[in-house]
Predict the 3D structure of the following.
Amino acid sequence: MSLGTLPAVVDAAALASALDPSALLATGGAVDGLRTAARVLAEGIGKGAVYFTIAVGLTLVFGLMGVLNFAHGAVAMVGAYLGGLVLVIVVGANTGTLATILVFFVALALVFAVTTAAGSAMEVTLIRPIYDRTPTYQILLTFGVSLIIEEVARIVLTLRGIQPDPQWQAPMATAPDVLLGRTQLFGVGVRRLYLFEIAIGAVVAVAVWAFLTKTLYGLYIRAGSEDTEMVQALGVDVRKAFTVVFGVGTGLAAVGGVLLMWDPIWGPSVLLSIDVLLYAFVVVIIGGLGSFTGTLAAAGIVGIADSVTTWLFTTGIVTFPGLSEVTIFLLLVVMLIIRPQGLYGVEEVGGH
Amino acid sequence: MVVVLYMGLFAMSFDFVSGYTGYLSFGHAAFYGTGAYFVVLAANGQVPGIPGGTPFMITLVLGAVLAGLLALVIGSVSFRLTGVYFAMITLGFAQVIYELIRSWGYVSTNPTEGATVSGDALAIGVPYVDALSLDVGRLTGESVENLLGLGIDLSATVVSYYALGIVVVVCYFAMQRIVHSPFGRVMIAIRENEERARAVGYATYRFKLAAFAVSGFFGAIAGGIFAAYSRSVAPDGTFYFLVTADALITTIVGGFGTLAGPIYGTLFNQGLEDVLSTESGGIATLLREGLPASALEADLFGVSLELFVNTAVDGRAPLYLGIVFVLFVLFVPNGILGTLRDRLGGTVGKRLPDHLRRYLR
């Protein structure tokens, strides 16, 4: 969902799906209304999986540290490009479908490792000195970092002869044909890419959930988001936990970026930085800052709202092109008005 | 350098609410955009009730009042929240308006590209008195020959610069007046300790709301003079999140919570951009001409140094500004003007003469 600059692409992609014969058939008859609803729902869950993956790292970091990481989107952008780089280098014309998907997962793991290390280093060098200041300065600092990352990315890309602005087509072309088609699920044609994204989103969700509930650091995070001082008093080295969590949060952002690489509505481009950041904010705020369950639920809500409004526009029921973006940001505003702490947020977190 | 004026004024209006009350207004671009779009639409006669050809000064103020009202609406729900949540809800509002504007066919036939002023140049000065107003604009501006019989000729750009400058200075003094009034003291009290301010008996909610409306008003004036000068507005240059981000960066560099600071920050920003640019003696040109040819062709990880200079120096001000910004946040949190005032122990105008006098003896 290229928020700022590429609405035409969004609409074109959505239009293509609407012009698909099976979809047209589905939207044509009233009998098929249920089937259309199912398809829109499935697409919504697919989009929700993407939203979840890009937002979960942000909520993790905020939950423990109270730092709203404005560099989150920039890291996701870097993740998309690094993942794309691995795929472009390894995958050739003769690489099989299974091998490509395997390479994708290798790239995912590799990017996660690299960005986790980079995120930890950033926490130690830049963010640690300003914990005692007001949260405003943490926002400002991470925002500055995101600015630097974005500009460096632009320079490196231009030096390598890649246009930073429209999407980088080379890695998008490596997406195996299998994922581009549709599969019949309970009589509904669902794009396989969405199923793939749902699968990865589920894996990420389970992994983060396991990290939070089954590991010692997860315990620290859950305890720390309730009361950091108490955890410190109990002898936990919170500083080390901060470093690890910030690293993992950054790594998850990059994983989200890698996932976006094959998605035709996102794709690797420098603009991803701001887009991912804004959407991650929406999801995290709606779910409740620092809440894992909330992020999961909010991603689903935003994803379904997105697919429903996109469908409303493509079928011509509503002729306003910016409908889905407006709806998503309106969700944010309305949520903040009626329930500022979000769906599952703890009232004290963030101090509003 | 005209950019410094309108962006500086916008950053100032941002600092007025964010720096003085401590509430980060992340959707401030909404007011800038309101001012800019209102002026352009009014000049084209597209605003109902306002005939085309209404003097710019009147539409400028009307647009600013509209933005002030918008601020009241946004603020009335947003000020129930604080901290990160306030920043997020204002950002949310601004993004909603941004998305609406860039799809609103009424604005122009191609709303994503924005709208342009089709009629005559817009003039700053006394409305309906031609002798006391000056047309502004990069190409449409008025040039003045033989100023006051002094034999000084001013080009169109220079005239625009001074005309816009007058507006900015008037706005600066107006805001300065508010900041130093009892009202301004309450704003600072809210920043320092809102609960105590409320306990003392101030209705902080109303004060915050009023400050936000005033800030929105001046933000819209900044947008309005920008629109008058550039004669075209686009959603990405007015309502977008990055416009607010620009104001934020310059405010931090200049001095958070000092009204004049943002102007210095914007000046710094623009100065950096000009120094790095290819035009007239920028660093990129200097490097390209100053370095020997062999050095320029030297291999640097597979690219020549010349290409590196072209892409990594020329027009790359945001990168260096980002680095400066991070360093400022880490080491100079009060910004240029704030730190200078701390060092001198008062405002620069009052304290600097004493400090300099020491060296005269």
